[in-house]
Protein: NACHT-NTPase and P-loop NTPases N-terminal domain-containing protein
Organism: Orbilia ellipsospora
Amino acid sequence: MSGIGEASLILGLISSIITVIDTTKQVYDAVEDEAGLPKNFKKSAAKLPLILKLLEDAEKFVGNTPDDSVKAAFTPTLENCKLQAISLQKLFEKVMPEEDDSRVDRYLKAARTIGKGGRVESLILDILRDLQLLATQFPELTNTRGQGQLKEAIEEVGKMEPSLPDGFENTASYAHYGSGAQNINTGTGVQYNNNSTGNMNTGSGTQYIGTNHIGRPS
């Protein structure tokens, strides 16, 4: 592939990632009420401007680099970065709107479609690490300040508490993060639930509930 064609391919890839990250940022910025939003979404969204800046630096670097082998070295890392960015965008688009389901419940459902690595902080961390890999291979990609900010961001995101429990991607598991009751009996035997006020009477013989007489069949 000619130098012009190689550069065009990589620049197009970077541009597409910038568009995805910018769209994700706009989705978050449009939120007026953050009630019920998992805290790691806010922390992760705070890293989006830095990611955009580093991608723009990479775009300039590739555009000004005549060496085709350098440009080609960007491709695998950028392709992985784009996959993570698209998953991140999907999470934000599914979780941010105010709908009937709680944001946390919608987050769980959306993360399960991604599978392992679908936590918001995991996706942000993967993107930052991809950018760090490029900055390590090509120190001239960004300035010293940008490299320092990138290192700090990776350390901060890496220390975040998991926003979803281990095994969240297993759809056979039972989890309820919203309001209201959840009654599950996965084994044998009787399950008694009283989700309101008042008494719940159980017994092996005759029961009297209100004016009704319930006898146990012989």
In short: Confidence is low (pLDDT under 50) at residues 173-192, 206-218. Residues 16 and 82 are 8 Å apart (CA to CA). The chain has seven helices and two strands.
